[in-house]
Structures are given as C-alpha cells and as structure tokens.
Amino acid sequence: SPRSIAPTRTPRNHRLPAIYRQLAEAGQGVRGTDGDLAGQVSMGTTAMLPQLWRSPSGAVYVLPDAAWARRVSGVYANDLASAHPGRAHALLTRSPKGHFVVSVRAPLANRTGADELCKQFETGGARKAAAGINILPETRIPDFIAAFYQTYSGT
Fold this sequence. Notes:
It is built from 5 helices and 6 strands; from the N terminus they run H-H-E-E-H-E-E-H-E-E-H. By secondary structure, it is α+β, with helices and mostly antiparallel strands. It has a 6-stranded mixed sheet with strand order 1-2-3-4-6-5, with helices on both faces. The longest helix is centred in the middle third of the chain and has 17 residues. It is globular, with a radius of gyration of 15 Å. The termini are far apart. 34% of the residues are buried.
C-alpha cells in the first residue's frame, strides 16, 4: 500500500490520500499524446491541492505520486509565484520511490533565497529565485518546513 503523510490534515479537514484520489479521478479519461494525463487539463485540479503549511510569507503544497503531478509541478509553482508575488512557494511531489522531489520559488518581490534553502539538503540547489531538492525523505519534511519558514519569514 502507498505510504502517506499521516496524520496531517488540510484546513478543510481532508486526509491527504483522499484528496489525491479525488484529483486522480478528476483527470481520468483525459490523455495526452504520450498516454500520460495531459498537463494542461491537470492544471485545473491543482486548485484543489492541500496546503501542508502556510503563513503570510510562504506556502508548502503536497502533490501525489502521479504522472500529472510531476508534469505540472514546475508550472504550478510559477503560477503560484505570479498569483502571490509577496509569498514564497514550495511544492513537494511524491516520487514513485517514496521520497519527495521539491520545487521552490522565491517571492517575485524578492527573488532570493531558494538556492540557499535547497542547498541545506543533500541533493538541493539551483538558482536564487527558483531551486529544488531531488530527494527529500519524508522524515525530513519537518526540517524542510522549518528551513523554509526561517528563510522566508521576513519577506
């Protein structure tokens, strides 16, 4: 059975695995040219994604282990940054191997810190405004959120 982030609940009191099932069901039957769920159609389901953590200066979202989630994570991170230019965003996408792949966008109003945040983790790095972590074990999510908050609490 798939691993889950338990007992985390979203503000609407849904367990994360239930929301993943709803997202998967919403995209069934819509196929891209390569047989995966089409990224463009999947973007409509991202508005339903649970926030794992949020403050006025940042938000962390979790995406399921699904082809559509891997396809839209970078685009969705950019869309969130554009919609909320004063807030940093992180998307944690579960990998088929059980860890998470992290995409971070610094606030558009202050395009710094994403690289230094991600470099605190073994497989992290990239640019000041947009960075990521290739392998974040589930046990390190609290460490990531603490570092994210510390990096962006003053923006």
